[in-house]
Amino acid sequence: MRNSPRDPESSPDYDGLPLWRPGEGAAPTVGVIADYDPFHQGHLMQIAYAREVLHARRVIVTLNGNFTQRGFPAVASKEARAQAAVNCGADAVFEIPVAFSTSPIDSFAWGAVSLLDALGCIDVVLFGSESGPGHARLLATMASAMAQDERVCKTLRSAMARGIAEEDAFACGLDGFVPPEAFPLCIEALGQPNNILGILYIFQAIRSRARVRFATNPRVGQAFFDDCMPEVAPSAPGDGMERQAFAAEPLSASCIRRRLFSLGDDKDAQRRFAEMTLPRASFEAVMDDESFPVHPNRFSAPLMRALRERPHGMRTFFPDEPSRADGLARLALEAGSYAAASTAWASAGVAPNKATRILTRFLLGIEGLRPSEPACCHGVQWTRLLACSEGFSLEECAELAPARGLAAQGSSLLTGAASDSRSVAEEIAHADACDNLYRHYVSSGRSA
Predict the structure, then answer these.
(1) Range of weakest confidence among 389-398, 412-421, 424-433
(2) Contact 305/348 with Cβ under 8 angstroms?
(3) Does residue 60 contact residue 91 with C-beta atoms inside 8 Å?
């Protein structure tokens, strides 16, 4: 159970910031927020960090489901990715609902943190960062500065709505709220996507008075958005040298996906590459999923059909620009495929991540970029246990309750944020429909 006090007012912190001090108190239960798209060597390192540095007694993961935070469908099913995490040392994996997993990063961070807090057992949230543990206090200080004034959040959302880069949006939002002498260092830190996510996690925890604290592990290997395949010293086939090289300097998920997709329908080549770059236990889990790797273009047909049937449907994402919304819908339809539509939108001035999130939410019938009420205010209202180790019991998550009768599937769990059974039932039913769409099209054969 949670080591820190239940009363958020009395939760201890670190120099006034919600940071976890290694060695403080009993062995903590550590929470991790993840895509695992796919689960790679860097993710394995993070779980090892939780065990070896934070001395975690439990590692609990909240995972984006079949549609991920970058906007595209996941490269492997949520069940396969969750099992990969458990195979590699996690104790349990809970699902982040699709309304949050495909939303902009500030809404996504709110959903992920609210879910971890709602589990009732998490002591410390561990996130990877480019700055590493030596700059945890700097990241937390920026999050605290944001929490001091609601105008910062509004400025950040306004900047993101204009489609500028996320690090630039943060510069706009933080300007004037961070001491001038610290601002150059802040800007340097904000040039990195994992740092931005970490700041948002801490900000949302402070804002909601969540009963968790934070720690960060250093990101190792390729940069987050680096998708170029590095050269590896030549080795004899099967001698494992490539695997050792990638274990020491992990490839980014972006690079792994790009390489897998570049191999087309050559399943043998994809298998060899996955075996070379993924942890063994992760490789075995995703290869059990016959549809791996899932290319976004498997969803081209339903996306194009939705664009034809709902020509004005993009207006919910651009409420003040109806003509632009209709033009983007026509542009996507002309592009002819999921990936080409995303590229065409980027050329038309829509930020790449925003483009993929909008296309995915449009396909799934989710109106607007952010979760609707009451989830937007109260956080994640339900979840599902996707996978767990033999020794894990749901009784450790004190504040979850079975969502009996709310959905066709009996595996749903309510959080303390669930305020209206009807709205929760509708959200679960819609999430089931999204999962059914994913399963149908990933099993439909070749990518377009």
Answers:
(1) 412-421
(2) no
(3) yes
Distance CA 446, CA 439 (A): 14
Tokens standing for residue 226: 């680096």
Shortest CA distance to 178 belongs to which of 164, 166, 192, 188?
188
Give residue 116's pLDDT.
94
The neighbouring-strand residues paired with 63 are 34, 95
Report which of 384, 448, 355 is spatially closest to residue 104, judged by C-alpha positions: 355
For residue 9, what pLDDT is reported? Answer: 35
Residues 105, 370: Cα–Cα separation, whole Å: 10
Of residues 394 and 61, more confidently modeled: 61
Residue span(s) of the chain under CATH 3.40.50.620 come to 8-218
Which residues 6+ apart lie within 8 Å of 201 measured at CB? Answer: 33, 109, 112, 113, 125, 127, 143, 214
> Do the beta carbons of residue 39 and residue 278 sit within 8 Å?
yes
In the chain, what percentage of residues exceed pLDDT 70?
76
Question: Which residues are CB-contacts of 74 (< 8 A; sequence separation ≥ 6)?
Answer: 35, 37, 64, 65, 66, 67, 68, 81, 294, 438
Peptide bond before residue 293 is cis, with ω within 30 degrees of 0: yes
The DSSP element (H or E) to which 125 belongs, if any, is strand 124-129
Residue 168 has pLDDT above 80, yes or no: no
353 pLDDT above the threshold of 60: yes
- Model confidence at 1, pLDDT cuts 50, 70, 90, reads very low
Tokens of 97: 């609902």
The pair of structure tokens assigned to 410 is: 């009996």
- Structure tokens given for 177: 């709220």
- CA–CA gap between residue 288 and residue 446 (Å, rounded): 18
Burial class (CB in 10 A: 0-12, 13-18, 19+), 54: buried
Handedness of CA 360, 363, 364, 368 (dihedral sign): positive
Kindly state the DSSP code that residue 60 receives in the 8-state scheme: E
Strand partners, 215: 126
> Dihedral, CA atoms, 183, 109, 440, 326, nearest 10 degrees?
-60
Whose CA is closest to 191, among 172, 174, 171?
Answer: 171
Confidence (pLDDT) at 68 = 94
C-alpha–C-alpha distance, residues 69 and 266, integer Å? 27
Q: CA neighbours within 13 Å on the CB side: how many for 166? A: 18
- CA angle at 348 for the pair 153 and 322, rounded to the nearest 5°: 70
CATH T-level assignment (fold) for domain 8-218: Rossmann fold (3.40.50)
SS3 (DSSP) at 122: coil
Place of tokens 């109260």: 378
Which residue, 406, 400, 361, 408, is CA-closest to 380? 400
CA distance 203 to 392: 30
Top pLDDT among 183 and 92 is at 92
